Amino acid sequence: MARTREFDTGQAVAAAMEAFRRKGYEGTSMRDLTEATGVGSGSLYAAFGSKDGLYLAALDLYRQRYAVPLIDLLRTHGDARAVIREVFLSTVGDIAADGRRLACLIVAGAMERARDDKRVAERLKATTRALELALFDVLAEGQLRGRIPGDRGPADLAAFLVTSLQGLRVMGAIDPDRDALTRSAEVALTCLG
Predict the structure, then answer these.
(1) Which string of DSSP letters, residue by residue, matches 60-113?
(2) Which of 92, 112, 119, 123 pairs as cysteine with 181 (C-beta 3.0–4.6 A)?
(3) Rounded CA separation 180/97 (Å)
């Protein structure tokens, strides 16, 4: 008879996600994960198969917690410039509020794991692509309504804005100065005319 899982897998994934954000994938040992989650390594292996499986679950949770709210915000159908600006300022606020300077798992995963792990690369690509598509929709509608200049295609603008958002996260990991990050965000937003 199979044993009943005696821990909350959602809580374990959340704790593991924070451990990976603090130390990266390579820097996080199974011991770190058992300490962070309060779950024994055998139970973690039984639930997730491996450290890699737990990392993939952490990436999925990170997307739900950090990317999906931005995508949902973009789909609120407000003024294109205002909603995109709100996404940027919300991102800056998250970075500045994170005094622990935890890594963005999208950026960290891209630098540390995507080259060698196709599953990680696919998850990162899907997350950034979803954000890009949401931006594309807002930009295309803004151009149709004449609120965003049409001199650049919405796909190119969306790709640039995602790159800029991720750049803010990289710079915020170096120095989470809200004023400096806000100024950089405002420069990026000049692409909207």
Answers:
(1) HHHIIIIIHHHHHHHTT---HHHHHHHHHHHHHHHHHH-TT-PPPHHHHHHHHT
(2) 92
(3) 14
**Chain centre to alpha carbon of residue 42:** 29
Contact 103, 21 (CB under 8 A): yes
- Non-local (6+) Cβ contacts of 67 within 8 A are 106, 127, 130, 131
Give dist(CA 23, CA 147) in Å, integer.
43
Q: Which CATH superfamily is domain 59-192 in?
A: Tetracycline Repressor, domain 2 (1.10.357.10)
Structure tokens at 82: 């205002």
Query: pLDDT (tens digit, 9 = 90+) per residue, 7-63?
Result: 899 999 999 999 999 999 999 999 999 999 999 999 999 999 999 999 999 999 999
Residue 4 is predicted with a pLDDT of 45
At 4 the three-state DSSP class reads coil
Answer for the pair 128, 172: CB distance below 8 angstroms, yes or no: no
For the chain, the straight-line distance linking the first and the last C-alpha, in angstroms and rounded, comes to 64
